[in-house]
Amino acid sequence: MRIPRCTAGRRRCAAATAAAVICSTVFTGPDLAAAGGAPIPSVPAPKLDWRPCVQGSPFDCATAKVPLDYRDPGRRTIELAVVKRKATGPGRRIGTLFFNPGGPGGPGTVQMPQNYEFFPREVRERFDIVSWDPRGIGSSTAVNCFDSRKEADAWNASKPAGFPVGEQQRKTWIAAYKDLARRCQQRDPELLRHVATADTARDLDQLRRAVGDPQLTYLGISYGTFLGATYANLFPGKVRAMVLDSNVDPQAWTHASDDDPRLTTFLRMGADRGAAAVLDKFLALCGSATTARCAFSAGSPKATRDKFDQLMRRLRGHPLGAWTYGRTVGDVVNSLYIVHPGWTGLAGRLQNLWQGRVPEPSPLPPPPPVPNPNPYLGDEQAGAVFCSDSPNPRDPAAYHAMEEAGATRAGDAGRFWAWAAEGCADWPATVANSYRGPWNKPTAHPVLLVGTTYDPATPFSGTQAMARELANARLLTHNGYGHTALLNPSSCVRNYESRYLIDGTLPPVGTTCLQDTPPFSAPKPSGGVATGGGAMAGTVS
Predict the structure, then answer these.
(1) Residue 162: phi, psi to the nearest 5?
(2) Could you give the CA distance from residue 148 to residue 163 in angstroms, rounded to a whole number?
(3) Residue 458 and residue 244: Cα distance in Å, rounded?
(4) N or C: which end of the chain has fewer CB within 10 A?
């Protein structure tokens, strides 16, 4: 299974930072400290020996050693790959802003450098920006269930792209993930038991201590919001400022019955409905534009929707080369994440398919100046984390029925999201330490939540749910499209985030910001506020 992923192994992270997840039901136990068990022993902060990542790089790299198991810190240690960009404002540095790019499975050592320019200028001036590959991921001590990249590529090629179509492909898909689970159990089963989000939250606190900050300043996007919420409830007194952008509903993520989870995590979250709503907007806006702005336009929203449905029916029966129905729907869902240039590129690929031409691959962004810009990011890495946190059906046969139900309520996107968690069905590990709530512990300072109204992965309802769950949070609505306001910019959001991160000032209750550049349109003046608050004028300082 795959959910929309940043294929950092092919250096596409600048275009899609919500990384892959494969899902499995893992019968997790409660976090000991939160559940009233034995307290977690204290351990020394790791030492960070910062050096330029590569010669001439503006980024510094270091390696942190942390315990594999915080309950038994003297036994085995693992390594975390860490990256930093120093504050650019001489004499104005406040501290460190930690960044998690989502996933789970997002390699921060690649994605933070690639997306550095998306951080508000005032934030770059006042903070060192630090990210890391979480345990189990990328260049840190990683979950890797294959002997070589060649073997991993062969496994990946053995299963259908996007999701399976038809009985034979379903059998192939299920067999592939069963094989992956078998391989993973044989490699490093101990590591698989210690890659839950709660483990990573403890790593984050160790990194905070390592840079000398008394409290944490943090920006997490997508899955990084769940990590942030976990940290805020494990270490509520350590929250200085925390921005959570495109939020996961923590109850949907964690609270289904382990014994009988009837829906996958993503269906509980409503990701299928969210993606369907964004796809409908994509087609409507495309149909309202000229073909010069949206190549797939058929002259009106209805005609463009009909054209898309015809194309999907055609591909279902007659794939165009490697472009099957499943692969195309997967590409559509992924491409809705980043409006510019993602939506324009998607329209071009759909038009090529409509005309019977195999689309050209998207150009790759340049590799960032770090030692390993192309780390291995197999499905098992994201799956090991996700399956530690979130229950999903254990019966592979259940997923086809969920696909049909998903298609009824969310069309093509419903089929995609139904299969996105199937890899969980045979996942072999039981996590040692997880955190499943409560989510309402009072934090030292309030949390700022940002939600985009048309988000194809973490629907706006997830941010609203996070606002209800956290003890002290302020909701900032981003009226726009795409996954995360960070990568679909609003100058208004950036200004409010900057003010909050720098001096703790929250936006007024009910503030709504507009996206700077709507899809398929010429650039518009930036920074407008639709309702409430008003845009902040001038530079935040």
Answers:
(1) 80, -75
(2) 25
(3) 12
(4) C
Residues making up the chain, counted from first to last: 541
DSSP 284-329: HHHHTS-TTT-TT--SSHHHHHHHHHHHHHHHHHS-BTTB-HHHHH
**137 and 106 Cβ atoms separated by less than 8 Å:** yes
Give CA–CA dist 257/25, Å, rounded: 10
Instruction: Please confirm whether the linkage preceding 341 is cis (ω < 30° from 0).
Output: yes
Using one digit for the tens of pLDDT, what is the confidence trace for 390-431?
Answer: 999 999 999 999 999 999 999 999 999 999 999 999 999 988
Say if residues 236 and 441 touch (Cβ distance below 8 Å).
yes
CA distance 395 to 122: 50
Which one-letter DSSP state was computed for residue 84?
Answer: E
Q: Which of the four pLDDT bands, split at 50, 70 and 90, describes residue 365? A: confident
Residues 6+ apart with CB under 8 A from 401: none
CB 220, CB 97: distance < 8 Å: no
pTM of the full structure: 0.91
How far is the C-alpha of 21 from the C-alpha of 104, rounded, in Å? 6
Alpha-carbon distance of 421 to 435, in angstroms, equals 20
Instruction: With residue 476 as reference, give the H or E element that holds it.
Output: strand 473-481
Nearest to 96 by CA among 79, 82, 80: 82
Q: Say if residue 523's pLDDT is above 80.
A: no
Phi/psi at 282 (nearest 5 deg)?
-55, -50
292: its two tokens:
């010069």
Q: Is the Cβ–Cβ distance between 22 and 386 less than 8 Å?
A: yes
Phi-psi region of 284 (alpha: psi -120 to 50; beta: other; left: phi over 0): alpha
Residue from 309, 337, 311 nearest 323 by CA: 311
